[in-house]
Amino acid sequence: MDVDIWAWVGETQQQLSEAGNAGFAMALGDLPAQAYEGRYPQLDVMAPAIAQQAESVDLPWLEFYARYWHLIGRVGDRAQGAVAIGDAESLVAFAQREDVRECPSVPAAVEALAIAQANADGPGYAADRLALLGPAIEALEPTDAAYAGLVTQYVSALTDAGRADEAVSYAETAIQRLGAVGRAASWELGAESSRALLALGRADDALAAIQAAADFKPDDPVAKPHREGVRRSLILATLGRTAEAVDALPDLDVVGDHPRDFVEWAQAVNKLAGSAQITNTWQLGRVLRQWIDYFGMMGGYRARVELALIAGELAVARQGVWQAELLADLAEQGAAELRSAEGVTERVAALRAAAASTTAPEATSPLEERVAYFDAADGINANPEEWVGWLAPLSGKDIEATRRHTTTLGFLGYPVTGADIYWKMLVDTGQIATADAQDLDFLTNLLVEARQDERLEQMAELLPAAGKHLALARLHIARERWEQAASEAEQAMEAGAGIEARRAFASASQQLDQDAKGALALREALDSDDMTDEDVWRMIVMATSAEDWETVRIGAKRVGMPIKSSEGPIEEELGLVRIILPAPDGGQRQVLSIRTGPATARLALPQPRGMEYNAGDLVVFDPQLLEPVPDDPEEQQNFVPPFAAVRMLRPGGYTSYFFDGAAPSEADWAEFTEVMAERGWPMWVYSDENYRVTHPTTGEQLPGVFGWVAVPSNVAAVEVDALLDDATERWVHPLAWLDLAREVDVEVERHERITKEYGL
C-alpha cells in the first residue's frame, strides 16, 4: 500500500508532539519501517500499544493505522495465513464504523484481508478474494493511493482462480489506467503480472514483464531485491537458462528470513537441483522441513502442501526414499486442510510412485555392526538422511539403534515418526515403567517436538513418580506453563529425580520470580557429580536476584572467581561490560556498565527519559557471553564483553535531562565535561559527527551535539538548570535544555527560541 495514503499521520504526529507526546509521535512514524524492515519484535510491542492508546484517547483513525501496520507486518513478509484471517476480518469490520469509514486508508483493510486469505490457501480463497476486492476497486479511481495495491491482489486472485489470461489482461489495463493519470504502476503489480504469464506457460513474456517492472516504485522497497531475485530465478529456470537463474537466486541465508519467498525459492531450486551449481543435500531437506512446519503453525496450508511436494521430489532426486514417503504422507494430510485440493491427489500419487521406483543408497556396513559404524562416522561429513534408512531395519528392536535412529529423525524434522517407533517399543510392549532414563528423555523430547501433549501425558501416567513428574515438568516448560512446571518439578525432586528435576525447578522458579527457591534447589545439589559449571552460574544468577550473597560467594568459589569481601552485598570493580537491555519499542539497547560482581553490573551511561533504567542502576545479568572473544590479541584488548540483563536489582535513583545545541570549542567542552565529572553526574553524547544544526543568522551548517546528563535523586532540577547555565554561559552558541527549563519554569521562552533558531 502506497505510504502516501498515510500523509494525514504527519499532522497527527505534530499535534501529539505539541501536546507533549513526542515519544508517542516518534513511535507512530516508525511503524511502517518496522513492518517493512522486519523489526517484528518492536512492531509486535509498539503497534498494539499505540492502538490501545489511540482507543483510550478516542482517535479511531490512529487506532486503524496501528492495527493495519501490525497486520501488514504479519501477513506481508512473515506470510501468516489462517492465524491472521480473524484479525484481518476484524480490521475490515472496524473500517466500516461510522467514525472510521471516511479515513482515506480504509481500503487497506480489504487488501490486508485478501493477502491473509491468499497466504492461507490462494486457490481455495480465490473466489472470496475476487468478491471482496472487486467492489473495493470499483469504488476507487486510479488516482487513489489504494488503487494499485488492490489491483495487484485482484490479479493475484485471478491467477489463483485459474484465470491467468484474465489476470494478464486486467494487469495491462490497470497499468494503462494508472499511466493515463500520470501514475506509474507499482513493482508488485508488474511482478504479479509476470506470475500470471508464467502460469500461462509464457515464460519469455514473464521475464520481459519482470524486467519491465524493475524501474517501478515498490510498495515494499526493503523486500523488492530478494523478491525480484527469486521471481527472476524461477522464470529463468523455467526457460532452462540455468546459469542466469543460479546467479539471480538469493542465497539461503537471505531468503531464510523471508517466509513470503519460501515457496517460489523452493520451486526455483527444484528446477535447478540437477545442475552443477545447486547441490541437493540433506541440509536443504532439513531447511525445507522447517519451512513446512513454519507454515503449519502460521496456517499457510497451501504453502505447506506445496513445500512438502517439492521437498519430496528433491528427496527422491537424492535417493531419500524414506523421506519422500513421509513427505507424501504429509502432503496428503495437508490437502485435507485446503479449500481446493484440485491436482494435489495426482501430485501425491506421482511422488509416491517416484519414491517406489527409486533405490535407496546401499548401506556401507553390515547390519549387526551398524550402530558401531554410526558412532564412528564423521560428524561433519556423514549424511544423516542415509543413516536413517540404514538404521531403520534395527530401529524398534535394538535399543541402541533405536536411540540413534529416532534422535536423527527428530534432528531432520520428523519427531512424530521417531516418537511412533519409540512408543511401539516401550509403551505398547509395557516396558515403559522400567525404561532407562535416557530413553525416557529421548521419547519425551520427541513427543514435545511433535506437539503430542496428550500422548506425553498418557506416557507419564505409566511411569514411576520421579519419571512421571519430570516428564510433565518438561512438557509444561516447553509450553511455558510455569506454575505447573514448578509444581511437577518439585514433585520430581521429592521423588528423587535428580539434577534434571532441579534444573527444571530452577527454570520455572526464575520465570515465576521465585529466585530464592530455584537457587536453593541447585545449591542443595552443589556436591553432586552431575552439577556442571552452567548449573553453578545459574545458581549464582538466581541467588544474586534474591540477594543471597552467601550462596553467590559459594558459587563464585566453585567456578574459580575470587571475591574480596566475605559478607554482605558484593560491590567490586571488575571491569567494563556491555549490558543488553530491552528498549521501549521492543528492540534492544546496549549500555556500557561496570561489572560489580559475578552477575551484577552498574549502568554507567545516562539513558533518555521513558526508559525503565538509567545510569547508577544495579542490574543482574546472565554471565553467558553473547559474542565470542576475538582471536586477535589487539581486538581482545578493546573487547568489552556483552551480557544479557536479567532484571533490575536496585535502581540508582538518577534522573536524566536532555541537552542539544551547536558544539562548543574543544576547550569549552573539556571544561564542561570536567564540571559534570566533579559532581559525579554521568553524561553521554548520543550525537555523532554527522549531526548538524543551523546558524540562526547565516544559515551555515554547524557541528551539533546532543545527549543526556543524569543526576542523583538528591539533586534538585533547579540546581541542574543553574549549573548548566553557569557552565555554558560563555559559549559562542547557546546550549538548550528545553524539557528541564519547562520543568523548573525558568527561561522557557529562551530555550524555545534556541531550539527553533538552530533547528534543534
Automatic annotation (TrEMBL):
InterPro entries: TPR-like_helical_dom_sf
Protein known as: Tetratricopeptide (TPR) repeat protein
